[in-house]
Amino acid sequence: MTDIQLLEACLLPLNRRTPPQPCFFRIIGRDAKGRIPALVEQYRILAEKDGANLSGLPNPREEEISRFYREAGTKFALDAPLIARQVTLWLGQIRANQRPQLCRAVYDTLALLHERGANDHILKNVYTKFMCWLRGPLGSVLPKVGGGEPPKVLFEGDVSKHEVFFLYLLQQAGCDVWYLHYTSSASYDKADPEGRLSQRISGELLSAPPPPAPPPPPPPPWDGAGRDLVVNQWVSQPVWEAAALPYSQRTGAAPGKRGSVFAVLLGADERKTYRNRLFGVKRALDNASRTWVLQEQKIQPPTPSETEDFRITDRKLSRPQLIQALAERMPAGHRWTPLAQRALALVMEQFPDGNENRFFNYSVRLACWLRRFAEQLFAKPQTDYPPALLYYGPVTEPEVSLLWALAQMGADVLFASPEKTGVFANHFLPHIWIEVTFEDSLPMESFPRREEKLLARTTAYDAAQELNKILYSDTGMFRDRQFARSQPVTLKTTYDEVGQLWPEEAQYRPSFRTEDGVVYVPNLFAKICGVDKGDLSLYWDGIRAMLTPNTYLITALPFLQTQAPNEGMDQNTARTFLHDGRLDPKAIVASRAYRYGYLPEDTQNYILEKIQALMDYDLIVDGGPDVLAVTLSVLMNLDKELLRLLQSFDFTRTIPKLLIVDVTETMFTLEECILLAFLNLVGFDIAVFTPTGYRNLETHIRPDSFNTLVVGEFCYDLTVPDLRTRRPAGKAGWLDRLLRL
């Protein structure tokens, strides 16, 4: 018989074997066709059912040995009657007709060991070990010997000498025994060098077989839910129009399918048009008598009572098991239950974070939110329209997951934010939504409660707007006051470059760029010490040449007068608008001390933004503990001429300028330094001519915030002439000389 046939025969009853006796095989390796592993797995099932599946036999514990000596006696001799008496006393579960064969098997095995050199002391120890194993690991197997189906014993892995002889004993007692090692026969060969105790079954491959494929998991309770849903694929019109259609008019969906909309509207166009569009969506939802929800505020976290049902889930489960366990804790009996379960699973199967606590908490929050919104949106049967969620306002990643999940349940989901957000672009879920991005942004306001009054547009107006898009979109050309925000880029220059760049518009200066609606304005902030070659005539003429209609000139110090408390915002009032270094813009604008309400709103916003930037950038040094209140009080009381220069500042073009001539020993005050640092952040060009070379703005402005340029000789005790008068004809200043180059 072949090896395979021998193994197959061992699976048959005794009366169908030739000869009809138990077998002891040692299986080393496996065959390429996989028949040996297949037969081993059949045998393993039988061993686990009515026999023993072993991977090693531990030495008996001291208490087991003591019990054996106590019950069977400590006497030992290689004597058949003694062994028979001790088997009877120790193995009471063995029936009388089974004992003779077992006793003979024990005796013959010990005799074989004695024949191979074991002395009486070794034999006693081995005998005690065998008896403990017969009552312990094999205690439930021995009562089954003697029938037509020998009990099966499988031993897999490395084996010791005494374990091999014990397996031989079991075969002699009436058990089928298979010893299995897929990769090596070394341990067995050491115990039975001549191979007399068992019959070898050899495979040509000395490697473990691949593990069996796991059984397919049972389908989840929500299997099949949502198969009739089609999200967005049918939409061919603007999303706000598509969301107003009944199922019957969502013709792009396949027959028998239910189409739904999931859309994200970011940014805004003209304010009234945008708000009327939102109001139109609300009116369409109301007029259709649909089940729908307007969500204007950030979604509140789940309450303890909402999370209670989900938090009792075992966190130690694997992720797939945990997802299913949480989904199955959704309230049963609702028609939306399988849809919510499926949506929860779809989200959490794609959750990227490896932190198990965050995964569990994220899952529980989403499950609670799904149940909360499902009870609002899906409680009533839907006939002509799907339920709808109109979400207006700020959003975070977990809320995007909820919107995505509700769309997977078949709801129309419309998200609108007049302020652009990148949360959707960076989300881990597949981007199945339709994104509509408007060119501009608007500040967040409450959702419109009524229709806004509109201005009708003429054909000429529309044509002009279209021309603007063509001329001023990524062409390097800019329309008047095209941008509302700027960021200064203070240039590090030489003395000559101050004169060269001073008259240049922002767009022609190095480092100018526009990005995401922000103009990066290259501006100058220079302190010029000394007089070139000591020539005062040329010095004053050069300064005169720098005076333009948009230059604010200062020639006397101190140049900033502190406002009286009743004329503006004092420091005490300013403190009330500061909280942990942050301004409260709404409270400032509403204050009676606020003096800028007549300015255009974008100018007001720009001023407040740059005041906050000055506080954040920490440009002021040695300002004392109340520096923030001083900063706010100074900058809330700006000179009207400065305000007009700031309001007229078109960020891409002519840059407003502040020019100071300081011929004194007077240090700049804290308030004056605050003003200079603020105007630098606003984008002004600033030049401080200091012929003496004395310190002035260094007292409270970080030296690395401006250029210090030393030219020529230091001159003292000067009187500043009238710089606004023209120079005599024929004389040229240093600026004119540079421009002729």
Structure description:
With 741 residues, the protein is α/β, with parallel strands linked by helices. Helix content is 38%, strand content 13%. It contains 25 helices and 22 strands. It has a five-stranded parallel β-sheet, sandwiched between helices. Strands 9-10-11-8-12 form a five-stranded parallel β-sheet, with helices on both faces. β18 (578-579) and β19 (582-583) form a beta hairpin. The longest helix is centred in the middle third of the chain and has 22 residues, at 356-377. The protein is elongated and about 140 Å long. The protein starts with a helix and ends with a helix.
Helical stretch tally? 25
What strand order characterises the main sheet?
Answer: 2-3-4-1-5
Q: Kindly name the structural category.
A: alpha/beta
In which range does the helix fraction lie? 25-40%
